[in-house]
Every structure is written in structure tokens, then in C-alpha cells.
């Protein structure tokens, strides 16, 4: 049996990821297979109050001949790429560690372009109360750290920090990790329900404006600038529709370049118009805090160390067996035909 012929139940059992039950918003339903979907229509899940690079690319006119079909909002990155692998959507994005874990389960997908990352403008901070006695990694032993989901970006950064600061794995295991909805994390910190809160983007900036907290660490100070997550597409789609895949990946790459070279205020205003026009009853206020997608590579091109770093993390955790994944097989830049600045005649 070829990898992309795995039955859906077998795939879910292999990955150990969450089910698709909450994949879409109420009333949207879930697409099932591509039998009635044209090759130039790409089904996807979004994020409330957010404009993804793919959505920006479509609005900029960078996806000629393609149509994006929103089927609902995702609950997490791992769920989003699971939906793509199971055939419920045509692309999905997640933290690279989740992509590696899926590859270790021999899932029928391949990473095709980076879509978010970490830089000095876009980062995750681990915050404590200003008068907290927590100042070091060792201080976290026995303490509660709240993050949006377990086994993904925030926990990987936490594990990396604890290891670099010299904690033995047994000591690191005593740092309690809790999954909380991001909108509730700051409140849990201020009420003393958790000792550390992982905050990003608007939630981080608003919490800092209110004061009374300080950063214990952040992923940019710890690891520098790097692309942290990739869009994946199913092998069956890449094999059957390479032209459309190339148009999609290249368009997203162009949108990433546009967002970098365009004044931030202009990018934000365009995002606000996109959200208002799609009319999904979303709050546009979070977009006012947008600063960067954080992608480090040229037009989203994927670097092998952006995957191998997290493969080693998963091996140390015992989540995957050493040598289970061969990083060059996990991704491809072959569909990214985004031109370099001096060659891009369209100016994009």
C-alpha cells in the first residue's frame, strides 16, 4: 500500500493527533475528498481574526487561476496538517516539530513552504509576574507553565531552554506544562493559577501594556530568527496537480516578500479590509498589532535545519525513534518559483 493510500482511521491511529471533529466552525461542515473539487480549488482552514499568507496571496492577485475555499477555522497547527493529510483540506500549516512527527508516522504529506517564524518583531515570550521569585530554569521545577497546546512550538522552546540551562531530563519533566486557550492565559497568570504564561502577538503586547509582568525568556533571544512552521500539501495532490501546487507555493512566497518590503501600516490596512470583506464576524483589533510573519528564508524557502532541530527534540523526548525520519524527504522547495528581487519583472 502506498503512503497516500492509508485509510483515514489508520492514519489517525499512527499520528496520535487529535480528531477532526472540531476542525471547522459550526455550520461549515467538512469537505471529504477531492472527487468533486476542481484541481484549481484549494480547500483550507483559517484562524479567526487573522490573515494567513495564503489568504494575503489570494487578495494580492498572486494566485492566478486558483481559488481558495475556506471550510472553517482550525483548532491548532497539528490538527490543521492532519486535515490536509486526511484529505479534508488541500494544505495546512503547523509548527515544524508537528510536521516532523507526522512524517515519522509516514503520513502522506510534504512541507512545501515556510509560513510563520520568529524574529525580533514576532516572538513568543514566557512571562511571569513582575515580583515573581522565578528567575532561572531551575526555578521552574515544580511550577506550572501555560501554553496554547502541548507538543508544539511553545513546549519545544521550553524544553530547549531547560536543556540549555543544564537541567537533567528528570528535572525538566517536573516542570508542569498546561494547555490553556490563549485568551485565558494572561488572566490565569495574574490570578496565580499558573506561574508562567506563554504569550504571543496581540496578547503579549496588551499584557505588557497593562504592566505587572516580565519576560523570563523568549524564543527569539533563545534561538534567534528562524522559520518555525510550514505549509504541507498531500502527496496525492502534488503528484496529480504539480502546476497548481507550483502556482500556490510561488504565490505564497510572493505574498511573504510583499509583506516584508511594504510599510507595516499598509500591510495592516490591507489585512483589515480582507477580514471585513470576508464577513465572518471577526474582530479586526488583533490585526492592529501585526508586525511580521517572521519567516526567515527567502520567500519562504525551507532550510533543512529548521526541521532537523525539532527532529532531534522529538528524539530526545522519545516521541520518535532515532533515525525514524530523513529530513531531506520531509520537504521540498521545488514548487517555490518565487523570483529573486533582481529577476522579478513584476516587482513582486
Model regions low in confidence, pLDDT < 50 over at least 5 residues: 1-32, 341-348
Helix content: 25-40%
Distance between the termini: 42 Å
Total beta strand runs: 10
CATH architectural grouping of the largest domain: 3-Layer(aba) Sandwich
Judged by helices, strands and strand pairing, the structural class is alpha/beta
Number of domains: 2
Strand content: 15-25%
Give the C-level CATH assignment of the largest domain. Answer: Alpha Beta
Rg of Cα set: 20 Å
The name CATH uses for the topology of the largest domain is D-Maltodextrin-Binding Protein, domain 2
Strand count, sense and closure of the main sheet? 5 strands, mixed
User: Spatial order of the strands in the main sheet?
Assistant: 7-6-8-5-9
Q: Provide the succession of SSEs.
A: HEHEHEHEEEHHEHEHEHEHHHH
The number of helical runs is: 13
- Net shape: globular
CATH level 4 superfamily of the largest domain: Periplasmic binding protein-like II
Polypeptide structure, described:
There is one protein chain. With 348 residues, the chain is an alpha/beta fold. It folds into two domains: 3-119 and 225-329, D-Maltodextrin-Binding Protein, domain 2, CATH 3.40.190; 124-223, D-Maltodextrin-Binding Protein, domain 2. The chain has 13 helices and ten strands. The protein has helices at 8-15, 53-59, 77-85, 96-104, 153-164, 169-172, 182-190, 201-210, 219-223, 235-240, 242-261, 264-278, 305-317; strands at 41-46, 67-73, 91-95, 109-118, 124-129, 144-147, 176-179, 196-200, 213-218, 226-234. The strands form three sheets. Strands 7-6-8-5-9 form a five-stranded mixed β-sheet, with helices on both faces. Helix 2 links the parallel strand 1 (41-46) and strand 2 (67-73). Helix 2 (53-59) packs across helix 11. The longest helix has 20 residues, at 242-261. InterPro entries: SsuA/THI5 (IPR015168), TAT_signal (IPR006311). Pfam families: NMT1 (PF09084). Residues 57-265 form the SsuA/THI5-like domain. It comes from Streptomyces reniochalinae.
